[in-house]
Every structure is written in C-alpha cells, then in structure tokens.
Amino acid sequence: MAAKRRIELLAPARNLSCGLAAIDHGADAVYIGGPAFGARAAAANSVTDIATLAAAAHRFKARVYVALNTVLDDRQLEEAEGLAWKLYEAGVDALIVQDMGLLQCSLPPLPLHASTQCDNRSPEKVRFLEDVGFRQVVLARELTLAEIRRIRQATSVILEVFVHGALCVSYSGQCYISEVVAGRSANRGECAQFCRHRYTLQDLRGKVLAADRHLLSLKDLDLSRQLAALLAAGVDSFKIEGRLKDENYVKNVTAAYRLALDELLRLSPDLEPSSSGSCSFTFIPDTARSFNRGKTEYFLVDRRNSPGAPDSPKAIGQLLGPVRELGRDWFAIATDEELHNGDGLCFYDRTGTLRGLKVNRVAQGRIFAHGEPAGLFVGTLVFRNHDVAFAALLQRSGGCRRLEVRLSLAAVDRGVELTVTDEDGLASTTFMEATAETAAKPIDLAVLAERQLRRSGGTPFTVTAVAVDLPSGAYYPSALFNELRRRALARHLDLRIDAYRVEEVALEPNSCPWPGKTLDYRNNITSARARDFYRRHGAVIPGNGDLDAGEAEDCRLMTCRYCVRRQLSLCPRDKGQGSGDAEPLLLSDNTGEYLLVFACDRCEMTVTKRGKARS
Questions:
Q1: Which of 28, 39, 280, 583 has its CA 20 to 30 A from that of 335?
Q2: What is the pTM of this model?
Q3: Same structural domain for residues 349 and 415?
C-alpha cells in the first residue's frame, strides 16, 4: 500500500503564547523567530521559549520551524551558526534560511527550508535549491496555479505556499527601497513599509493620474477557496502569514484553515494531516472577523487581477452592509449581524477616506456611536473591524486539540495497572500498588472503574474505549482509579514527547550548477561565505564582488507583478493599445520621487529612484 501524502497547515507565532495557541487550534507546524536574524525583527523569541514550544508541539507530532532568514555578514554568520546549534539542542524541527552563506557553515543536522526571501519563482531555481539540500521551499506569493504545477513537475521537494495574510507588493527578497532610501534593509528584518505610504502618480508631462493614495498597498491574501486546487497542483504545506499578529488572529485563522483542510483530507484517501490529534472549537471560525485589508486571491487564478487597496492600508474587517437609515445622532445598517457596545466600525466617506466609529450602544436596531457619525450617508457600506463578542469567544478558546486513547485496566500481583494506547499506536503502562477489598454490597466494579477512567478533563486526551479486567466480588475505591488515570495520562504525555524524533539531515556540499550566470545585487550576497557558495556552483561575481543595492546604477527598488496602471484601469492592453512598454510614470511621496517602469511583455512593474536607469 502506497504511503499517504502528508499535508501541513503551517501557522505563525509572534511569541510563545501565539505558538501554543496555533498548535491547540490545529496547526501541523508553527514558524517563529529566534532571538536574532529573523525577517521580522520585532518578533524575536528566546531559545528557552522556543524549547517550551517545541515540547508542546511534539506531543501532537507537530513541528516548530525557526526563521533564520535575514542576510548576514561574515561576523553574523558565525553568530547564526552558534544560534543554529542552540536551536537544535532546544528541539526545533527545521531552520528557515535566506542567506546561502549559511550552507558554507558547520550547521547542525537539521532540515533547511528555503525562505520566500530567496525569490523562489521558477522551476530552475527551486530545483537548484532542492539539489543543494533544502528539504522545503517557500514559493513566491505571486505565482499562478500553472506556474506552481510546472515547479511541481520539475521537483520533488516539499512545496510551501502562502494561503492567507498580508502581501508584499514586491517579490520577496527583491525589495530594496527601505535599504536604499531609509537605511533599513527588508532583507535584514527591518522593512520600513514603503508599500503602505500615500503617493501621487503623474506622467512625465506632469499630468496627475492619482493623488494622495496608497498606490502600492495591497489587500490581504485569502486562498481558502483554492485549497483543493493547490493540493491538486502539488502543494504540501499551507502557510498563514502573521508573525506580527496577536493570539486571537492566530486562533481564528488557524482554526478556519484546519476545518477547511480537514474536509478536503476526509474526501481524499491518499492524503493525511502531518500531525496527530483532532480539533473541536467553541466558536465558528471566520477570517473576515480578524485583521484584513480586504481579500484577494492575488494572481493564483487571474494573472490580470487588480489586488490593490489604494484607499487605505488599515484593516477594514467584516462587511456588515449599507446604511439604510440615518438620524441626527444614530444610524441603522441593513445587516443580519448582531452588534454590541464597544464594536469598532469603519466606512469610506464620499472622499474615499477611511473613517472609524466606536459603538456606544445599540437600541432597537439603531446604532449610537461615540461622536457624530459625520461622513455617513444612506447606502454607505459599513465594516466591523473590532468585534467585541467574537474577541471574547476567542480569548476563552482553549483545550481544542485532543488525542484519542484507549485504556485497559487490569488487576496484577500487588496492585493494578493501566495501559494507555493512543491513536498513533504508542502504548504505556502505569502500575499502582493496591489491595482489593471485599465489597460490602454488590457493585458493578467495571462500570465504576470505567466512569472514573473516562474523566480525562485537563489533559489533551479523549478516552474512546475502556477495557476492565478486575476480579469478581473485589472492590477498589474511586480515588484509586482517579489517581491511576491521572498518573497514567501524565506519564503517557511525557512518553509522547520522549518518543518524538526530530528528523536529522546531513548537509552534503556539492557543485550542482547555479541556474544563471552572472550575479548582481538581487542575489543578496553580503559575505565572503555566500560568495564562495555561488562560485562553487559556477556563478560569476562581477568586479570586486561588491553587490550592494545602494551602489548599483540600475537598482530596482521594487520588482512587482502587481501593476499600478492595471489597478487604476490605465493598462494599455485593457485600452486596446497593444502590449508594448509605455513611458515611465512618476510616483512621489514625502521621501522622494520614483519612476515606475512597465515591462508589458512579462506583465511586471519596477520601481526605481528617479535618475536611475529605466530598463
């Protein structure tokens, strides 16, 4: 019988509590930042906390991946090498890496995952990463289903795809605007969020095409309707973005994707989840009720999609409905949703500005807000970006994930023993000394014992069956069964952690050819070891090996599949004007002026500093 394909739901963890919540709400794996060198500098965690998370995850055969995915100089590589060994000793399951210089270091035998910061867009690139030893590759968010299928056909490595959360407007790893303009490198975890700025767009003759809008800001990704298509395309790992999000976000979004994937796996006998246990929730997961800027499927199924959110980079949340009635100090919404005091609402006014309200009270369908609802008019669409009641449900949610066990109780010499066998086939036996007494009156001891042994509350176990083999006419007090159950389940939990084995992979350097030739700043090479890595694979490093983006004459500050012209209905293809390159447009904000260059033949837009090369 062929082995089943194992499918992973991968959730983010800002910190230990978020990681524990992710595991409890159904994640097969969690990714988290360590104390340094993660691409989210604001989401660092101690090795001690990561060790605690790994132990908790391993109870369910879930995994913990640590992001070590910034670019590094030679001194930092030595520090990162030492950190990698500490993480190995802490029990983590893999390292997420961007800098190829790490492959020249003496790393522990942990699987390596190629970060999306490696710019993983082509079959050739992904195949190269597989050949040099990566066990899992995070694909670029911009890819279509057809492109993912082509990568799958050319490789056997585990493919990981983002399915939910914030989007970068530039290809990951190819954004240099923070570094060049603000001195804060996104490739070092210090993105300055230029994509969320307000900009004015004009042509080179000075005609204003859009003024004071968030022209590079995107909606948030939501591929929940495309999970079956992604499975069919060969995706193995489904990743939720959000290492800066709070615990309630992690609970809600992880639970939503857990339920959706479980339904698909139930219908697919050749697939199975990659960890143990099952979840039940006291709330109905709804990703619209968590932070989102609106939802988009990006380019997965529509290469000419318009996924921008130019009106605001802020969360809008759940659409409630239009204003149906408006009073002097109140308004009513055409919605079936129940609103509560303290809910946060928002709407776009007639100028397109996002405005917010806080619900003070609700009476007979009328909403009274703090302050006057200025800017509202009948027909205005109203969103809820803070749901007080739902947040309270999420706050209380816990103990969602359970492991099924069967118990077998038997009398033995000098006492009783309880054998626990879990859904993975792991068994443990716990003995307690005890002397059987003679029952003062007839009693069904088996019924009494089973009732006490089924009480597994406060543990991650659900008892599905109890077998009792005790002598006829004997009597044991209920307290004995309770204490035996408590000891046996605690011991079995420890046994699951002890029995878990992190996969160990020895990295064996080779000289498989780099799928290109000459390198430049876009390869993010910042150390001698990284240069040595690429030379070993046949790549050519020009000049003196200086590959700094800020010094490059033709530096592309951003390279995007997203197109401002298409977003604003200015695309020449849409206007029947052919597909050739149009003249650059000028984008400006308080940090300077930038040229937008359009390569219509490959449907890409680049952002360069004004005065830089335009190709």
A1: 280
A2: 0.95
A3: no
